[in-house]
Amino acid sequence: MNGFGGTTLRINLATGDIRREPTSEKMAREWMGARGFVSKILYEEVPRDADPLGPDNIFIMAPGVLTGSFAPAGSKIGFGCISPATNGHADSSMGGHLGPELKYAGYDYIILEKIASEPSYIYIDNDTVEIRPAGDYWGMGSLDLEARMKTDLGEEFQIATIGPAGENGVVFSCISHDFGRQAGRCGVGAVMGSKKIKAIAVRGTKSLPVYDIEKHTQLTYDIIQRTKTHPNMAPWQKYGTSFFVGWSNERGCFPTKNFQTTYFNGWEHIDGERFVKDCVVTDKACFGCWMNCGKYAVARIPGKPDAYLEGPEYETLALIGGNCAMTDINHVAYANYLCDNLGIDTMSGGASVALGMECYQKGLITKDDLEGHELRWGNIDDFEHFTRMIVEKRGIGAAFSRGTKRAADHIGGDAPKFISQAKGMEFSGYDTRWYPSQLLSFCTADIGAHHNRSWAITADLELGRETIEGKAAVVIYLQHIRPLFDSWSCCRLFWGELDITPEEHVESINCLTGWDLTIEEAYRISEKIWNLTRAHYIERNGGPGRDHDQAPIRHLEEPVPDGPAQGKMVGRENFERLLDDYYKNRGWAKNGNPTREILEDLGLGFAADNLEKIGQLGAPIPGGIPAVRGQKLKPKAM
Ligand code: SF4
């Protein structure tokens, strides 16, 4: 089959049974890979009452249609499972080189079922697939383990690892690869750890069949020539995403001191300029990328060993830097290294420590809760101690290891007013009080508050930050187009920053596979995936969906106290209007549940039947579903 490895793997960890099947061409055409495959497989295979960290959850690893091809940055791979953070569909992607390697070994997705009887790792060398003991590796840090396994197996193996956090079931544990690429969100590392799988090592040396190799390569060659001189190329190559710190502060959306405010005095100490000057060692790129936004760096702090890492990127600079009030770039980089090696997502990890710092500031937790330590803003030693308490689930750290929502409920008092999360997943690095589209994006996202689902900050800037009208339709468009790249498994930055069009990606897919995909069909597949994961979430968590889309109190009731966004706040009335518009534009009922009309229109009649059985099918919309869902708007680059 052109464009694909041709085989799928299903590994039962309890029995050791390893089964191979040919990849279904129909499935590939209808779901396109990675996130698309994950949404379909999870919906069909995981019992609705399965414990995310129990034996009935499954763990999927899937590259997409463009992974490993000559398409621009076809570098990504998706991981899927039911999330221990949200109890809904989870998918999280990473770049690097693992996805292409897996395809070159001949595999389009791997499903891990049940739980191994002992710590293990999955070994794949082309047709050789084994479950191997990993007792010697258990307890090691993610980065340390990757280096060790490269020594043990050979440099040519591409390796995904988890750290101690994944072993301990911390719900925001990540999977690490390539010494700094992470599938960070949704707690996919915790599910891998719950299956007692410490690592997945892959070597693939087969070729990938291509339908029209000359045209496929020519397309990318032309794009390379065109984008070499794009004005965004130089800053991205120099700074990666780190230059965005200043941009975000100026526009009043930089999370500061646990989202208490949105402008960080001292931001210039952790901005791109300072990062490049003090920490960056060299550039780094994923497979097939010529933008090399990755920055290999070193953190130097007197009294601590030098720490080498990739990053920090913008999200880390926001959620560990501003949000924990760190004014030294070496401290942020060290905290980034710590999170990477322990195996937690820097976004949810930073948000968790920041919540702890605010609770400490306001007397809701004390030294007695912190083993005699403090938890002061901007203090790297306090950050390290508390992070280790979380990862090792010591004392109050155990409550924080379950995410900020559960931690705040555990602490009580005003703590639930301090959290910024949706569906159990912490906000990415943007305060939304002046950005209604971004607030709506976070709250309606199927996996919880993650910017990769819809990054609408520039849409708010373009359409007016005070405006409510027309925002919901734009968010829907962004929710369809951005996740497309997760199914295609190529880097969305080439679209967002270098103006490569989705139509060019579709052409590349057709040259690779011989398909006759159109952009309209691709949008429709993305909308189908979105509706399926919505139905899945409601089937697992009950309804109505509107209850699950509610915004954090701080973002509705607490005006920004200072900075460029001083006095700004979306407010409850406006937020409810946004939700009303959003559901109407999606063809969902006012209570946020999908209707039979929209589900059948997208070929998901089975999901309508299932929602009906549990009394959660949305009531038909007067006048029927909208013919066009979403309003196209290509946000300006950063
Ligand atoms: S732009 Fe950055 S994230 Fe995207 S493929 Fe290149 S190095 Fe990876």
UniProtKB/TrEMBL annotation:
The protein's required cofactors: tungstopterin; [4Fe-4S] cluster
Region (Disordered): 542-568
InterPro entries according to UniProt: Ald_Fedxn_OxRdtase_dom2 (IPR013984), Ald_Fedxn_OxRdtase_dom3 (IPR013985), Ald_Fedxn_OxRdtase_N (IPR013983), Ald_Fedxn_OxRdtase_N_sf (IPR036503), OxRdtase_Ald_Fedxn_C (IPR001203), Tungsten_al_ferr_oxy-like_C (IPR036021), W-dependent_AOR (IPR051919)
Pfam family, one: AFOR_N
GO function terms (MF aspect): 4 iron, 4 sulfur cluster binding; electron transfer activity; metal ion binding; oxidoreductase activity, acting on the aldehyde or oxo group of donors, iron-sulfur protein as acceptor
Organism of derivation: Eiseniibacteriota bacterium
Biased composition (Basic and acidic residues): 545-558
Domain Aldehyde ferredoxin oxidoreductase N-terminal: 4-206
Family that this chain belongs to: Belongs to the AOR/FOR family.
Keyword entries, A-Z: 4Fe-4S, Iron, Iron-sulfur, Metal-binding, Oxidoreductase
Protein name: Aldehyde ferredoxin oxidoreductase family protein
Top-level taxon of origin: Bacteria
